[in-house]
Amino acid sequence: MFSTLKTLMDGANARADDRLKDVYAIELIEQRIREADANLSAAKMTLASLIQRKRSEEKLVAKLDARIADLTTRATEALASKRNDLAEQAAQAIADMENERRIRRDTVEAHVTRIGQLQMSIEAAHRRLVDLRQGAITARAVRREQKSQARLNKTLAGTSAADEAETLIRRVVDQSDPFEQSQILGEIDQGLSGSNIAQTLETEGFGPATKSTAASVLDRLKSKD
User: Fold this and answer.
1) Could you tell me the pLDDT band of residue 223, with boundaries at 50, 70 and 90?
2) I need a labelling partner for 173 at 20 to 30 A (CA). Which of 72, 152, 162, 194 fits?
């Protein structure tokens, strides 16, 4: 039972972690890029230190070469002058410097190997960081598109600002024309009062005219002739 509960809890935690990563994916990407950039900077500092130590060892090796060459010349001259005691002292010093030179040359070679490896790692990390930054740009663009699409889907699905605007447009367009309504009311009133019948009879020429017409004006002008 406890094993089942633990499995369920682990699954719930994993799902919650996935949801959290989905929500803050861009922020997590940017944080990981900052960490990778910091690691790359630290590696560059290490590389610079290794190169500096290698150069220092190379300078010491060069100095030992010069000292060994000088003492060798001097020891040779001492032997030629039968000063074996001085020649032996010089030989011991030369032996000591040659041993030191061998150790320092081994150190230089080790630095060269380590520098080569670290340079390759830094170059690979740099290329990967460039790809990560480009990927982050793409991810941000995709996330903006996703948010825009989500807002559009919300607008298209159900009640929205567009739906409300369409409803208001229909209310305005479907309203009755007040001027036309007034004319209709006037016609209704005329029908109820019988005035429209009198007007129809007047138009047909029955009864006296109550309004001037173009025909009546022409008849009056002709009668004056």
Assistant:
1) confident
2) 152
Mapped to the 3 state alphabet, what secondary structure does the chain carry?
CHHHHHHHHHHHHHHHHHHHHHHCHHHHHHHHHHHHHHHHHHHHHHHHHHHHHHHHHHHHHHHHHHHHHHHHHHHHHHHHCCCHHHHHHHHHHHHHHHHHHHHHHHHHHHHHHHHHHHHHHHHHHHHHHHHHHHHHHHHHHHHHHHHHHHHHHHHHCCCCHHHHHHHHHHHHHHCCCHHHHHHHHHHHHHHHHCHHHHHHHHHCCCCCCCCCCHHHHHHHHHHHC
Cα–Cα nearest to 18, from 6, 28, 8 = 28
Of 15, 16, 26, the C-alpha closest to 147 is 26
pLDDT tops 70 at residue 116: yes
Q: Quick one: pLDDT band at residue 170, thresholds 50, 70, 90?
A: confident
The answer to whether the CB of 26 falls within 8 A of the CB of 143 is: yes
Contact of 123 with 43, CB cutoff 8 Å: no
pTM: 0.56
Q: What is the pLDDT of residues 9-52, one digit of tens each?
A: 555 555 555 554 555 677 888 888 899 899 999 999 999 999 99
Go through 39-69 and write b for each residue having 16 or more CB atoms within 10 A of its CB, e for each that does not: ebeebeeebeebeeebeebbebbeebeeebe
Q: Which of 20-24, 148-152, 215-219 has the lowest mean pLDDT?
A: 20-24
